Amino acid sequence: MAKRIVLAVVLVFVAWEILDYVIHQVILSSAYEQTANLWRSPEEMNMVLLIIVALVVSFFFVYIYARLVSPKTVTNGLLYGLLFGCAFGISMAYGTYAVMPIPYSMALVWFLGTLVEMVIGGAIAGLIIKEEKSEA
User: Could you say which residues of the chain have pLDDT below 70?
Assistant: First the structure.
């Protein structure tokens, strides 16, 4: 099971990083330019920390699925991702929108992007993490 968890963590991390690039560098680039006064300059951003955070979240996302979701199916992986995505996306996107002067469209894209990322992560976990066979 440990090898499957490691593989799932790596694949979820890679999928999320690709989607993060599309969401933040492509879809939201003009929104970030319009709100540049709210963000650190690119030189001040700690990209290494962002990568570490994404890797740690990928680990916990997969590990929680592996330990707590049963039966381990693609359908349950998708549902897990959907629920996790709603919780994570609402808290991050709309929590930020409540306290920062960002455009609503940015909060909505953050929420929807997080939802898509988590559903894809759940599908990956559901495809890779399988029930351990019990010895009879």
Answer: 134-136
